Amino acid sequence: MIEIKGKKVLLLGLGLHGGGVATACWLYKQGAKLIVSDLKSRTVLKSSLDKLKCCQGIKYVLGEHREQDVHWADIVVQNPGVPKESPYIKLAKKLNKPVVNEATLFFDHCQAKIIGITGTRGKSTTTALIGALLKAQDKRAIVAGNIRTQAMLDVVDKLKPDSTVVLELSSWQLEGLEAIKVAPHLAVITNLYPDHLNRYKSLADYYKSKKEIFRFQKLDDILILNADDKVLRAWGKISKGEVLFFGKIDHKKSGAFARHGLIYFRKDKKVAPICKTSDVALAGEHNLENVLAAVTAAKALGVPDTLIKSVIKKPLQLSGRQEIVGQKNGVTFVNDTTATTPVASLAALKRFGTDGQRILLIAGGADKKLDYKDWAQGVKKYCHEVWLLKGNASDKMSLSLKDFKNIHLNYTNLGSAVREAFDLSAPGDVILLSPAAASFNLWNHEFERGEEFNRAVRKLK
Question: Where do the annotations place ATP binding (predicted)?
Fold first, then answer.
């Protein structure tokens, strides 16, 4: 176990999402001599710093990172916002300093059974679904990780050996598991699509980070993969543990699948129906995938069919994920701020555009080195008007939409775009914020962007 008490610990990156605060607080409570360093200013970090006022004795180095702090530290804790190519991370490794992240610390100190979920899309919804399914059987189950509501280090000391924790794990968090060579008992990979290519050297490098979720699994562990994804099908052949699949068609392997309006589960060549696809409360074809993944996990963990059917019948809404936030004069407003890739945005267009509704789309932002050709075709098919927020991704979008007439460019004020869209809308229309791009050129994070959209909707009269 990594010893923290009395050690000199440098936390590189505090951030604004909450994970950095939870990490700093946990390290402080463990008795670390702690320096927190972040490139952002004290003003920008105020909300995070305010939450750490109770932790007296933490030293802050803000607006910069310093080599002297790396030399000082016994352990360097890397926030997900700090890339592995950072010269300070490279210096720490050169000096043979242990470099860990919040996931390293969590897995190292967690006594509970860990269920881990990753993937490019759908991991938050799948995490929430698996959490709900397990809580229906055992109320002590906890959901945490790469979600806004519960950072993993906020809960690690509450977990007991006979409890279960469901973790959403980002690619950056997964990179920390190599340091202690561990993996979740049950791992789920929802899918793989191009993303974060502004952060990773290549698509293969990004996919490799996702593979970390099962790299150190053992023979008695379980891996659940999307059978509709050819890369993930191939990964099933290299897993050490049991492999289950899920898919929207019958994949002929063990796991859940949909066929003729029913969801089935196959194990040991025995196939049994679980429920109807019409029982699924979550709308959208992409959410059927998420439900199938969650059903496969629930069956592997012994959740009865009656509980599975009961849980998936209940509506589940996560903030900023195709979230209907209001209706005015017959116009529906949808906050899909977490759609930071073209693929994610396309899912929203298909969901809200297939019933003949006109979509007035607000999109754009910072580029993650992604391709927008398919997204542009979807926009042309489903959208009546488009407002593009300022950003280098928006520049690429406008080129892909060069023959699309109803396009409005270079918005820095989201409220203005919402107001203009509402003025041009008619009853039955959908005003959709689904950016298909990152937010960091105009906001601190995507949820801040979504909150501004919600405020703009509330102000409309």
Answer: 119-125
DSSP 240: S
320 marked as part of a ligand binding site: no
pLDDT tens by residue, 285-302? 889 999 999 999 999 999
Beta strands in 345-437 (DSSP E): 359-363, 383-389, 407-411, 430-433
> Is 81 annotated among the ligand-binding residues?
no
- CA 421 from centre of chain: 28
Is the CB of residue 362 less than 8 Å from the CB of residue 414?
yes
Residue located via tokens 């041009």: 424
Phi first, then psi: what are they for 362, rounded to 5°? Answer: -115, 120
Is 15 annotated as a binding-site member? no
CB atoms under 10 Å from CB of 260, counted, come to: 9
What kind and span of H or E run contains 235?
helix 230-235
| Calpha distance 423→268 (Å, rounded) | 58
Residue type, position 370, single letter:
L
Q: Is 119 annotated as a binding residue?
A: yes
Question: Assign residue 82 a region: left if phi > 0, alpha if psi is -120 to 50, beta otherwise?
Answer: beta
Chain-centre distance of CA 279, in angstroms?
25
Q: Are 384 and 358 in contact (CB under 8 A)?
A: yes
8 A C-beta contact, residue 192 and residue 231: yes
pLDDT for 355 equals: 78
CA distance 313 to 309: 6
| CB proximity list for 239: less than 8 A, separation 6 or greater | 214, 217, 223
Domains of the chain with CATH codes: 8-100 (3.40.50.720), 103-312 (3.40.1190.10), 323-459 (3.90.190.20)
**Closest CA relative to residue 339, chosen from 203, 447, 231:** 447
- Tell me the CB-side half-sphere exposure of residue 325, using CA atoms within 13 A: 26
Residue 157 CB: number of other CB atoms within 10 A?
12
Tell me the HSE value of 453 on the side-chain side, using a 13 A CA sphere.
Answer: 31
Residues 142-151: tens digit of each pLDDT: 999 988 789 9
Element (H, E) at 263: strand 262-267
| Residue of 194, 287, 204 lying closest to 246 (CA atoms) | 287
**Amino acid letter for position 323:** E
Q: Tell whether the model's pLDDT for residue 304 goes beyond 80.
A: yes
How is the beta sheet containing 331-335 ordered, strand by strand? 323-328, 331-335, 430-433, 359-363, 383-389, 407-411
Q: Residue holding tokens 């959709």?
A: 432
